[in-house]
Write a structure and sequence with these properties.
The complex is a heterotrimer.
Chain A: H1 6-22, H2 29-52, E1 62-70, E2 75-81, H3 85-102, H4 110-129, H5 133-154, H6 160-189, H7 196-200, H8 206-221, H9 232-239, H10 242-267, H11 269-295, H12 300-320, H13 324-355, H14 366-369, H15 371-384, H16 391-405, H17 409-415, H18 417-434, H19 451-469, H20 475-487
Antiparallel strand pairs in A: 1-2
Chain B: H1 7-12, H2 14-32, H3 40-59, E1 67-69, E2 74-76, H4 78-98, H5 108-126, H6 130-148, H7 155-186, H8 191-201, H9 205-223, H10 231-238, H11 241-266, H12 271-293, H13 299-320, H14 323-354, H15 365-368, H16 370-384, H17 390-404, H18 408-434, H19 447-465, H20 468-479
Antiparallel strand pairs in B: 1-2
Chain C: H1 2-6, H2 8-24, H3 31-54, E1 61-62, E2 65-74, E3 79-85, H4 87-106, H5 114-133, H6 137-146, H7 148-158, E4 164-166, E5 172-174, H8 175-205, H9 210-216, E6 223-224, E7 227-228, H10 229-247, H11 256-263, H12 266-291, H13 293-319, H14 324-348, H15 353-387, H16 403-417, H17 423-435, H18 440-465, H19 482-500, H20 503-517
Antiparallel strand pairs in C: 1-2, 2-3, 4-5, 6-7
Helix pairs in contact in C: 2-3, 2-5, 3-4, 3-5, 4-5, 4-12, 4-15, 4-19, 5-6, 5-7, 5-12, 6-8, 7-8, 8-10, 8-11, 10-12, 11-12, 11-14, 12-13, 12-14, 12-15, 13-14, 13-18, 14-15, 14-17, 14-18, 15-16, 15-17, 15-19, 15-20, 16-18, 16-19, 17-19
Chain lengths: 492, 482, 518
C-alpha cells in the first residue's frame, strides 16, 4: 500500500516540531511536555504505518519519494524504505516515543531538550530512509551533532563534558572521513549522481574499491562502535541522560552499522570482500572483549554500555560475513539490540533517578519496590544473553550460521563464548540489583515507577518477546531486504 | 575614450553609480541632520544599500555572454554580479549592526567610509585591468584603515587602525611592484589579454612565479592567509566589532574574488606552480588558524583565527583551479559571509550589555537569552560545517573540488582541520549552554540588531537546505571565468 | 473434538504457559485462589496427554511419529514449528504432565509471591514439554534453553532460605543464589557447544527439521569448513554429547546437580529430578544416536565407562552425605547412570536384541526414576518443612511419631533401590540384562555399585526413622497431611503398577525402540 508523503512526514515532522518547540514559552513545562508527547506519538504511529503497510512481496523499495534538491550535482531528496530499513524506522519511532515518556521529569530547560532530541530523531530517520548518498551524509551529521549538547547539558555531571566532546569528535572524524570516501565515489563513478541505486551499478574498479572501502566502512563503523574505535561509546552512554542513552545506544549506533553496510559494503562490494577477513577479527574483539569488560564493571550503566559494544560487534560481524545468514541476523540484531538496550538504559535511568547511585554493589532488592522495572530488565537480560524465545536468539543464531557459512569456524567458536559471559554479568546484575536486600540507606527513598514509564517499558518488552516467539512478524520483511542487498555481492 | 556609452555599460556599473549617489546623500544628510537626528544616518545608509541591492539584483544581471566594458577596465560577468550582491548584503547587515555603537554611529563620515569601501569592493570584483584593480583595492582598503581605528578614544582601536595601515601600506607597495613587473613582462595591463601575451613572449616561468609571489603577497594580506595573517587578530580585536564583521566578511570575499579572477585568467602557463603555492597556503592557513584558535579566550580573536582557517578552506577551491573549485569558493563565501555576520552580530549584541568580549562572559547565555544563544549555536555550527546549515554544503563543495582535482591530501587535511574547528566552536557553545550565568538578567536586543541577526541566521539555514538556486549562481560565476 | 485431535500436541505444549499467564493475571492477592487455579489448569495438559495416549495407536504415523503438526515459524532460515511424538517422547510427556500437577500440589505450602511462582512453574512445564515434542532442531534448542529461565528463578527466589556459600574471593552469597547461578551457567555453557553444533547442522543441511536431518546428516561426506567431515562430526558429536551429559548429569559433569537440588524448593527438586534430568537422556536418544550412529558406536565405550563411574561414585557420594536432600540428589546421579549405560549399549550395538532390551530398560528407568525421585524429594521436603533441617544426624527414630510418612519413605526408597515388585527393579534389570553381553566388565562393576545403592538408601532410612528417638521432635512433628498424601498417592500407585505390570508402558516404549533404533 502506498501512503503518499509518509516518509517526508516522518523525516521532517520531528525537526519542524523541534523548531516550533523552541518558540514555545519555556516556562510552561506542561505545555512543552504535552507537545513533545504528541509529536512523539504521531511519529511513532507514522513509523508503525510504514512498518505495517510495507508490502513484503512488493518491490525492493517502497514509499518512494524523490524531489530534486541540487540537480546540478545529481543530488535529490530521494527516500524509500526496504526490508532492512522499515524495521529500523519502526525502531526509531519506538525509541523516540518511549524516550520522550521517560524524559517527562527533565527539569533543566526541557524545551531545548526535547527540541534537540527531535532534531536528532529527524536525522536518524533521514539516514535510514535516504537513497541519496548526499542526503545520507546530510542527515547523518544532523543525527550526530545534537548529541553533543544533549550530553553536555543534561548529562551526568561528572563526565558529561569530557564524554560529550569525545563522542562528538570521534563521530565527526569518522563521518568526514567517510564523506571524503563518498566524494571519491561520486567523482570516480562518472555518473554525476549521488543516487545510491545508480551508484550500485557503477562498477568501480577493484583497485578503487580496495583503496576506499576501509575509509568508508570505518568512517561509519565508528558510530557502530567497532573496535578499536569503540572507546567513545561507553563513556558517551554513561554520561548521557536516560532518553539520550536510549536513543544513542538504541538507534544511533545502528546508524553507523547501517551506513557502513549501505554505503560501504553495498557500494564497494569488491573492497568489502578484500578486506573483510581482518575486519571480522576486529568484530570478534568487539564481541568477546566487550563482554569481558562489561563483566568487570561495577557501574550499572557502564556495564550496559560495554554490553552494547559487544552486541554491536555481532551486528558488524554479521555484515562482515557477507552472506545471507549473516545479513539476516545482523539486520534483526540491529532492531533487537536497539529495543533491548533502550530498555536497559530506561531501567538504569529509573534506578539512578531514585537511588542516585549506579554502583551495583550499593543497590539491591529493587524487585520489591519496582517490580515492573525489574521484570522488564530481566526480559532485556534474557534477550541480551541470546535466550531462545526472545528476539536476541532470533538475531544471533543466523549471525553464527553466517560465520559457518563463510567458513570462519574458529570465529564462531570463540564468539559464542560471549554468550556465556553475557549470561554471567546479566545474572549477576539482576541478582544484585533487583534481588537481595535493599540497602539501608535506600530505605524509604525509593518508590515504584510511574504508569507512563510502565507503558514505555511494556512496549519495549512486547517487541522483544514478540519477535522472539513469532519471528514471522519481522523476518519475512528483513529477508526480502537482505536478498536484495545480497544481490549486489554478485548473487552471494 | 570609451566610445559610445551604451546602456549595458551603465548597467554594469549600476551599483557603483548608486553607491556614489548614496555617498552624496549621506554627506548632505550629515550636514542637514543635527543632534539626535544623526541617528537616522545609519537607517538611511541601510535603506540605501538595500535599495541598491534590489536595483542590482533586478537590473544589473549580466547577459548570456560575459563582456569587457569601459575599455576593458571592468568585466560584466556573473562572478562580479554575485560578489557585488554579497558585498551589498554584508554592507546592509553591517550597517544595521553599527546602530547603537558608541562613537561610531551618528557620524556621517563613518558611513561615507563604509560606503566608499563598499564601492571599492564592487569594483574589485569586476576589475579586468591591473590599474583598475589596484585603484579598487586602494579604494577599499584606505577607508577600512580609518574605520578600524575609528574609536579614537580607545587605544586598542587606534592601535588596530594604525597597525592595519602600516602593514597594509607595506604589502600594497610590494604588490604594486609585482603588478608593475607583470605589466612590464606581459606588455599589457589587461588581465584577459595577459595569458596570451605571456605565452607569446615566452617569459621564463621562474620569473613569472617570482612576480606572482609579489602579487600574492598583497592579495594574501587582504584575505589574511598564513603567513600574512599576523595583523588580523590584533586588528579584529581592536576595531569596532561591526567593522570587524565587515572586514572578516566582505573585505575577505573581495580579496577572493580578485584572487580567483587573476589566477585563473592570467596565469594558466604556470598553473601547476601556483596551484602548489595556493595549496601550501591553504594548508598552512587551515592548520595555523585552527590550532591557534584553540587557545583563545577572547571571542573576537577566536573568530579572527577561525576566519584565517576559513580562508584556508576556501582556498581549496582556488587550488583546484577548476569550475567546481571556483564554484565552491563562491558558495563558500556566500555561506561564510552570512554566518560570520551572524556570529559577530551576537558578539555585538552581547557586548552592548556586558561590555566584554571574553568568552567566559558568555556563560549561561542560553539561560539569559535563549534566542540569542540559539542564533549563536546555529552560526557556530555552520562555521563548524554541520548540516542543515550552509557551512556543511560549503565545506562539502570545497572538499569535493579538492578531491576532484586530485588534491586528496588537502581534502583529508581539511577534514582533520574541520574537526579541530569543531572542537573550539563546541568549547564556546559549552560555555553558552552549560556554564551557569554570572548574571541572570536577560540581554536586550535592539530591533535593528534583531532584524539583522534573524536575516543572517535565516540565510544560513536557507543556504544549507535550499541548495539549487545558490548553486546556480555559484555555477554561473564559475563558468564566467572559464 | 476434531480441533483437539488435530492440535493435540500444541494444546499440550501451550496449555501450561497459558495457564500460567491466567494465574499471573488473576486479580487480587488471594493466594489460595492462585494455587487452586494453577492446580486445576495444570490438569488440562495431563488429561490431554491421556487422550493422546489412548488414541496413540490409532493416530496416523509418518516417519515413526504421530500427531505431527508443522507450522511455518522462522522460514528465513528454514526452521519450522514441527511437533510429533513417538513412544519415547510420549512416555516422557506423560511423566511431565503427571508430575507437574503433583509438584504444584506439593507447592501449596509456598507463601511468597505465589502467582509468580505458579507462572514460572507452568512456564517450566511448557519448556520441558517442548523439548520432548519438537521435531525441529531449532525449536528443540529453543525449549531446551527456555526451560532454564524459570528453573533459575525458582531456585534463586524460592530456594532454601538459609545457608551461605563463600566464593573464590571470600565473598559470601546466599547458597540458593550460588546454586542457581551455577545451574544456569553450567547448563548454558553446555548449551553453547550444542548451539554451535546445531548451527553446523543447519548450515550444512539447509534445514533444521529432525526427520530430514536424520536422513541427510549421517551420510554427509567430504570436507566441511576445511576439515574432514569425520573430524567435524566427531566434534559436533561431542558438542551434543557434553550438552546432554551435563543435563543428565553424567559424571564428571554432575557437580551443579547437588547444589541445585539441595537449594531448590521441594517442587523444584521434584521436577528437576523427575523431568529435567530426563531431558539430557532424551537428547542422547532422540538426537545423538540417530544423527551420529558411527561416532556413537565409536565412543560408546567412553560413555559406558562414565556411566559406570556415575553409578559407583554417585552411590559413594550419596553414602557420604549428612544432608538428606544431598543424599537423594547424589542418588539421582547413581540412578541416571543406568540410563546412560543403557544408552551406551544402544549406541554400541545398535540393531541387536541386547540393544533393544537395554534401551527399553533405559527408557523405563527414566520414567521410574522420575516417579521415585520425585517422591523422595517430596518426602524430604515434607519432613524439612516440619523440622527445618535436612541433617540426618538431627533426626532419628521418627517412625513412631510419623508412621504413615515412614511407610511412604520406606516404600519410595525401596522403589528407588530397585526392590523386585516395584518400578525400579524391572528397568534396572532390563538395562543390566542388555548390557551384560556388550559391556561385561562395566556391567559387573555397576552391579557392585548397586550394593552401595542399598547401603545409602538404608542409611537414609535408618538415620531418619530408626535408631534412638531424638526427643527434640516429640510433640513437634506432625504426621503427613491430606494434601501431601494426595501428592504421594499417584506416585505410589505408579511405583507399584510399574513394578507389577510394566507392560502397558513398555509396549509403547518398545514400539519406539523398534521403529527408531531397530
Amino acid at each position: 500500500m502506498q501512503i503518499p508523503y509518509i516518509l517526508s512526514a516522518i523525516v521532517f515532522l520531528p525537526i519542524v516540531a523541534g523548531a516550533v518547540l523552541l518558540f514555545l514559552p519555556g516556562k510552561d513545562r506542561k505545555l512543552i511536555y504535552s507537545f513533545a508527547f504528541a509529536v512523539a506519538l504521531i511519529t511513532f504511529l507514522l513509523s508503525i504505518a510504514v512498518y505495517v503497510f510495507f508490502d513484503v512481496s512488493g518491490p525492493r523499495y517502497q514509499f518512494e519519494e524523490q524531489y530534486a534538491w541540487l540537480p546540478q550535482l545529481g543530488i535529490s531528496f530521494h527516500v524509500a524504505v526496504d526490508g532492512i530499513t522499515a524495521p529500523l524506522v519502526l525502531l526509531t519511532g519506538v525509541v523516540i516515543f518511549t524516550g520522550v515518556i521517560i524524559s517527562q521529569r527533565i527539569d533543566d530547560r526541557p524545551r531545548e531538550f526535547f527540541a534537540f532530541l527531535f532534531i536528532l530523531a529527524s536525522g536518524v530517520f533521514g539516514v535510514f530512509v535516504a537513497l541519496d548518498m548526499f542526503a545520507l551524509f546530510f542527515f547523518y551529521e544532523i543525527a550526530v551533532f545534537p548529541m553533543y549538547l544533549l550530553i553536555a547539558i543534561w548529562g551526568w555531571k561528572q563526565t558529561r563534558e569530557y564524554a560529550a566532546m569525545k563522542l562528538t569528535l570521534y563521530l565527526f572524524i569518522g563521518s568526514v572521513i567517510a564523506l571524503v570516501g563518498g566524494l571519491a565515489m561520486y567523482f570516480s563513478s562518472g555518473l554525476g549522481t549521488f543516487d545510491m541505486i545508480a551508484l550500485e551499478g557503477a562498477n568501480f574498479s577493484p583497485e578503487f574499491q580496495n583503496l576506499w572501502f576501509p575509509f568508508v566502512f570505518f568512517g561509519f563503523a565508528v558510530l557502530g562502535g567497532i573496535f578499536p574505535f569503540h572507546n567513545w561509546s561507553p563513556d558517551g552512554h554513561v554520561a548521557a541522560p536516560t532518553a539520550v542513552s536510549m536513543f544513542h545506544a538504541g538507534v544511533l549506533m545502528k546508524l553507523g552499522a547501517f551506513a557502513a553496510l549501505r554505503v560501504g559494503i553495498m557500494l564497494l562490494p569488491i573492497g568489502a570482500q578484500t578486506h573483510m577477513w581482518w575486519i571480522i577479527l576486529l568484530t570478534l574483539v568487539n564481541v568477546v572483549y566487550g563482554a569481558f569488560i562489561a563483566m568487570v564493571q561495577t557501574d550499572f550503566k557502564y556495564m550496559i554500555g560495554f554490553s552494547s559494544v559487544s552486541h554491536m560487534g555481532l551486528v558488524a560481524m554479521g555484515f562482515a560475513t557477507l552472506n545471507y545468514n549473516g545479513y539476516l541476523g545482523a539486520s534483526v540484531q540491529m532492531v533487537s539490540h536497539g529495543v533491548m538496550t533502550a530498555l536497559f538504559f530506561a531501567v538504569v535511568g529509573m534506578v539512578y533517578d531514585q537511588a542516585h547511585t549506579r554502583e551495583i554493589p550499593k543497590l539491591g532488592g529493587l524487585m520489591k519496590i519496582m517490580p515492573f522495572a525489574g521484570v522488564a530488565f530481566i526480559i532485556g537480560g534474557l534477550v541480551s544473553m541470546g535466550m531462545p524465545g526472545f528476539s536476541g536468539f532470533i538475531a544471533e543464531f543466523p549471525i553464527f550460521m553466517g560465520l559457518w557459512d563463510a567458513n570462519y569456524p574458529w570465529i564462531a567458536i570463540i564468539a559464542v563464548v560471549s554468550i556465556a559471559i553475557t549470561a554471567a554479568y546479566i545474572l549477576r546484575a539482576v541478582g544484585r540489583v533487583f534481588f537481595g536486600e535493599l540497602p539501608a540507606e535506600l530505605e524509604g527513598h525509593m518508590h515504584d515507577i510511574r504508569p507512563s514509564e510502565k507503558l514505555a517499558l511494556g512496549i519495549l518488552c512486547v517487541i522483544l518477546v514478540g519477535i522472539g516467539i513469532f519471528p514471522g512478524v519481522m523476518l519475512p520483511m528483513v529477508q526480502a531486504g537482505v536478498n536484495h542487498a545480497l544481490a549486489l555481492l554478485g548473487g552471494g | 575614450m570609451f566610445g559610445n556609452i551604451t546602456s549595458s555599460m551603465l548597467l554594469a556599473i549600476l551599483p557603483e553609480i548608486a553607491l556614489l549617489v548614496l555617498i552624496t546623500v549621506i554627506f548632505i544628510a550629515d550636514l542637514v541632520l543635527h543632534g539626535k537626528q544623526n541617528s537616522n544616518l545609519a537607517g538611511i545608509t541601510a535603506v540605501g544599500i538595500a535599495a541598491i541591492f534590489v536595483l542590482t539584483l533586478i537590473y544589473a544581471r549580466p547577459g548570456e555572454t560575459d563582456e569587457l566594458v569601459w575599455g576593458g577596465m571592468l568585466r560584466h560577468d556573473w562572478l562580479a554580479f554575485v560578489f557585488k550582491l554579497l558585498f551589498l548584503a554584508s554592507g546592509f547587515i553591517t550597517t544595521l549592526f553599527t546602530i547603537g555603537w558608541e562613537s561610531v554611529w551618528r557620524k556621517g563620515e563613518f558611513y561615507v567610509l563604509l560606503l566608499t569601501s563598499l564601492l571599492g569592493m564592487t569594483l574589485m570584483a569586476a576589475s579586468a585591468d591591473l590599474i583598475m584593480l589596484f585603484l579598487a583595492i586602494e579604494t577599499t582598503s584606505i577607508p577600512l584603515y580609518v574605520m578600524a581605528g575609528f574609536m579614537t578614544n580607545n587605544d586598542k582601536s587606534t592601535e588596530s587602525g594604525f597597525k592595519y595601515l602600516l602593514f597594509g601600506a607595506m604589502t600594497t607597495a610590494v604588490m604594486l611592484y609585482g603588478l608593475s613587473l607583470l605589466y612590464g613582462l606581459a606588455g599589457t595591463s589587461n588581465i584577459y589579454a595577459m595569458a596570451e601575451s605571456i605565452a607569446a613572449r615566452a617569459i621564463p616561468s621562474p620569473v613569472l612565479v617570482g612576480t606572482l609571489l609579489l602579487i600574492l603577497l598583497g592579495f594574501g594580506f587582504k584575505v589574511a592567509l598564513v603567513p600574512l595573517h599576523f595583523w588580523a587578530p590584533d586588528v579584529y580585536e581592536g576595531a569596532p566589532t561591526p567593522v570587524t564583521a565587515f572586514l572578516s566578511t566582505a573585505s575577505k570575499a573581495a580579496g577572493f574574488a580578485v584572487l580567483a579572477r587573476v589566477m585563473i585568467a592570467a596565469f594558466p602557463s604556470i598553473l601547476a606552480d601556483w596551484q602548489t603555492i595556493i595549496a601550501i597556503a591553504a594548508a598552512l592557513s587551515m592548520i595555523v588558524g585552527n590550532v591557534v584558535a584553540l587557545t583563545q579566550t577572547n571571542i573576537k580573536r577566536l573568530l579572527a583565527y577561525s576566519s584565517i582557517a576559513h580562508a584556508g578552506y576556501a582556498l581549496l577551491g582556488i587550488a583546484a583551479a577548476s569550475e567546481l573549485g571556483v564554484l565552491s569558493v563562491v558558495y563558500y563565501f556566500l555561506v561564510y559571509a552570512v554566518t560570520n555576520l551572524a556570529a559577530f552580530g551576537v558578539v555585538i549584541i552581547v557586548y552592548h550589555t556586558t561590555g566584554s568580549d571574553e568568552i567566559s562572559d558568555y556563560a549561561g547565555l542560553s539561560r539569559r537569552s535563549p534566542m540569542l544563544a540559539l542564533a549563536m549555536l546555529l552560526a557556530f555550527l555552520s562555521l563548524a560545517g554541520v548540516p542543515p546549515l550552509g557551512g556543511f554544503i560549503a565545506k562539502v563543495l570545497a572538499f569535493a573540488a579538492a578531491v576532484d582535482a586530485g588534491f586528496v591530501w588537502l581534502a583529508v587535511l581539511g577534514v582533520l582541520n574541520s574537526i579541530v574547528g569543531l572542537y573550539y566552536y563546541l568549547i564556546v557553545l559549552k560555555v553558552v549552554y552549560l556554564f551557569p550565568p554570572k548574571d541572570e538578567k536577560a540581554i536586550p536586543t535592539r530591533r535593528s540588531h534583531g532584524i539583522a541577526l534573524a536575516t543572517s541566521v535565516l540565510l544560513v539555514l536557507l543556504l544549507g537546505v535550499v541548495l539549487a538556486p545558490w548553486y546556480d549562481w555559484a555555477a554561473a560565476s564559475a563558468a564566467s571565468l572559464f | 473434538m476434531d480441533f483437539i485431535n488435530n492440535n493435540i500436541l500444541s494444546l499440550i505444549l501451550f496449555s501450561p504457559i497459558v495457564a500460567g499467564l491466567i494465574v499471573l493475571l488473576l486479580p487480587g492477592e488471594n493466594k489460595q485462589l492462585a494455587r487452586r487455579v494453577a492446580l486445576g489448569l495444570s490438569l488440562i495438559p495431563f488429561i490431554l496427554t491421556v487422550i493422546a495416549w489412548v488414541g496413540f495407536g490409532a493416530a496416523p504415523e509418518v516417519d515413526g511419529f504421530r500427531y505431527q503438526q508443522q507450522v511455518e515459524w522462522y522460514p528465513a532460515i528454514n526452521s519450522s514449528y514441527h511437533v510429533g511424538v513417538d513412544g519415547l517422547s510420549l512416555s516422557m510427556v506423560l511423566l511431565t504432565t503427571l508430575l507437574a500437577p503433583l509438584a504444584i500440589l506439593a507447592s501449596f505450602s509456598v507463601e511468597d509471591k505465589v502467582k509468580t511462582y505458579m507462572f514460572l512453574f507452568l512456564a517450566l512445564e511448557t519448556g520441558m514439554l517442548g523439548v520432548f515434542l519438537s521435531l525441529d532442531l531449532l525449536i528443540f534448542f529453543v525449549f531446551w534453553e527456555i526451560g532454564l529461565v524459570p528453573m533459575y528463578f525458582l531456585i534463586d527466589q524460592w530456594g532454601s532460605a538459609s545457608g551461605e556459600r563463600a566464593l573464590w574471593n571470600g565473598m559470601k552469597v546466599p547458597a540458593r543464589r550460588y546454586a542457581s547461578f551455577k545451574f544456569m551457567v553450567y547448563t548454558m555453557a553446555g548449551s553453547l557447544g550444542l548451539l554451535l553444533a546445531i548451527q553446523v547442522l543447519g548450515v550444512v543441511s539447509g534445514t533444521f527439521d529432525m526427520l530430514a536431518l536424520f536422513q541427510s546428516w549421517p551420510s554427509v561426506t567430504g570436507t566441511l569448513f576445511g576439515f574432514p567431515t569425520e573430524t567435524v562430526k566427531a566434534v559436533a558429536f561431542w558438542a551434543f554429547a557434553i550438552a546432554f551429559a551435563i543435563k543428565v548429569p553424567v559424571w564428571p559433569f554432575h557437580t551443579w546437580l547437588p547444589d541445585a537440588h539441595t537449594e531448590a524448593p521441594t517442587a523444584g527438586s521434584m521436577i528437576l529430578a523427575g523431568v529435567l534430568l530426563k531431558l539430557g537422556a532424551y537428547g542422547f536418544l532422540r538426537l545423538v544416536i540417530p544423527l551420529y550412529p558411527e561416532q556413537a558406536h565409536q565412543y560408546a565405550g567412553v560413555l559406558a565407562l562414565l556411566a559406570t563411574l556415575a553409578i559407583i561414585l554417585g552411590a559413594f557420594a550419596a553414602w557420604g552425605q549428612r544432608d538428606f536432600k544431598r543424599l537423594v540428589a547424589y542418588s539421582s546421579v547413581n540412578h541416571m547412570g543406568f540410563v546412560v549405560l543403557g544408552i551406551a549399549v544402544a549406541a554400541f550395538a545398535a540393531g541387536t536384541e541386547d540393544a533393544a532390551i537395554a534401551l527399553n530398560g533405559a527408557i523405563l528407568q527414566m520414567f521410574n526414576h522420575g516417579i521415585s525421585a520425585a517422591a523422595m524429594f517430596f518426602l524430604v521436603g515434607v519432613i524439612y518443612e516440619r523440622t527445618h533441617t535436612r541433617d540426618l544426624e538431627e533426626w532419628g527414630g521418627l517412625f513412631p511419631l510419623v508412621p504413615v510418612f515412614g511407610a511412604l519413605l520406606i516404600l519410595s526408597s525401596m522403589a528407588s533401590l530397585g526392590l523386585p515388585g516395584l518400578g525400579g527393579f524391572v528397568s534396572e534389570f532390563l538395562v543390566v540384562r542388555g548390557a551384560w553381553p556388550v559391556f561385561t566388565v562395566y556391567t559387573a562393576l555397576s552391579m557392585i555399585g548397586l550394593l552401595f545403592t542399598g547401603a545409602y538408601i538404608l542409611k537414609g532410612i535408618s538415620k531418619t526413622l530408626h535408631g534412638p528417638l531424638n526427643e527434640h521432635w516429640k510433640g513437634h512433628l506432625t504426621e503427613i497431611n491430606r494434601r501431601e498424601l494426595l501428592v504421594m498417592a499417584p506416585l505410589v500407585v505408579l511405583m507399584l503398577w510399574l513394578g507389577l505390570w510394566p507392560a502397558w508402558l513398555l509396549n509403547v516404549i518398545n514400539q519406539a525402540v523398534v521403529a527408531f533404533f531397530g
